[in-house]
Design goal:
It holds the Pfam family bPH_2. The protein contains four helices and eight strands. By secondary structure, it is α+β, with helices and mostly antiparallel strands.
């Protein structure tokens, strides 16, 4: 009579292990080699800032001309405010650019950004569902693209890396998706390896 025999004898490789980890031996993020985004991205941000200043100046001028005498806005105050805004924005763009960067590791993707509130996002390739490239009008003029990475169960992107040259963005997306496929295949192989064996 045929019967299904489940091989339940634990193998040495399958024995549960939960060894303590010394926090001092953990890898440091500071040791990760980050790749900078394109310098064109910084130039693009400065141009956008200049456009905003010009629009504010035009709007302020139109408002001043429409006001009655005695209510005209002080050109010195408005000019000083715009100069201050442009100076601060330029400073923030330059400092923020130095911190922005991404890194690829064997199992995950890292992106850091911010200035006052700095953040580092780490997404394992095993969690990534798909990635897409996009570009705006100004980005297209500078030959730049951004890559958006989505994880399973999310409706919005979990990570966005801006300021990438088109060729680099396409290479990065291909690398990420190749790693996603490899991780899925490895996970499937592990599940098959750990499943019970039926002997008839």
């Amino acid at each position: 009579m045929d019967s299904a025999i489940h091989n339940t004898e634990p193998k040495s490789d399958d024995i549960f292990s939960n060894v303590s980890v010394d926090p001092n031996q953990l890898p440091k993020l500071e040791e990760v080699e980050y790749q900078p985004i394109s310098p064109k991205y910084k130039a693009m941000q400065l141009v956008v800032t200049l456009i905003v200043v010009v629009l504010i100046a035009v709007g302020g001028t139109a408002t001043s001309l429409s006001l009655q005498e005695g209510q005209i806005l002080s050109w010195s105050i408005m000019g000083g405010a715009m100069l201050l805004f442009f100076t601060l924005r330029t400073l923030l763009v330059n400092l923020g650019y130095k911190w922005k960067g991404y890194a690829l590791r064997e199992k995950d993707l890292i992106y850091r950004s911010g200035l006052i509130w700095r953040k580092v996002i780490i997404i394992p390739f095993a969690r990534i569902q798909h990635g897409e490239l996009s570009e705006g009008v100004i980005e297209r003029f500078y030959g730049l693209k951004k890559i958006r990475v989505y994880t399973a169960g999310g409706s919005s992107s979990d990570l966005t890396i801006p300021g990438l040259p088109k060729e680099r963005a396409e290479q990065l997306r291909k690398f990420i998706m190749d790693r996603v496929i490899e991780e899925a295949e490895e996970e499937a192989a592990e599940e098959v390896k750990g499943s019970p064996v039926d002997l008839n």
